[in-house]
What does this fold into?
Amino acid sequence: MHRHYLHLPFTLYTTEGDRGVSTANSPLGGVNHFARGDYSRDLRHARITLRLRGVGYEGRGAALKLLVQGAVGGMEAGQTLNFVYEKEVFDVPAGPDWEERTVTVDPDPAGWTYLSSRPDLAERYIGGERLQDITELLADVNLDIIFVLHNLDVAPRPGSDAASAADIHALWTRNGDLPEDAPGGGPSMAYEGEAVPFDYEADPARLPSGAIEIAQVAIAYAAPARM
It folds into this structure.
């Protein structure tokens, strides 16, 4: 099984609901104007432009990419598909000046990777191969749009106690008596055995450093907006 390591620095929920619109009392704060404004979720052939800059940023092999999540027909409530766009990436500019980077969202499955699921979350994120579903999902991206750093080079810090690659990547059984989502949102570290399932310190020299700042996200739609 191919493993995908990624970092999720920028997330936009596209629907109203517990995660779709945050309030001033939520951990995220503010209001999701995209969801409240009922903007189109049809991203087929849309042009997404980021006004961004890198502040001391080094990607070290990772690229800033578009990730979309949502459900298509025939899926059960709470199930999610997740795809990362590979055909084009957002080239993060170096230096203090803001610059624009644009990708055009091609619905052809050949330009996407289906991320599938960890074995312990296969019911929620659906394991297996669902690449052909990207065309249907892009017509209505009904969970979220995420700008991710994809293909992180995660490896133990030199001299650490990590035993082997097999041990490093082993997944422990989730403790079913504990919630999947931790307080404040995000996946829980509630597993059988130890409190934290990842028992080694990652080598920072192989991971991205610095910061990426986004001043504006603009979507130019190609398909007609929803009525």
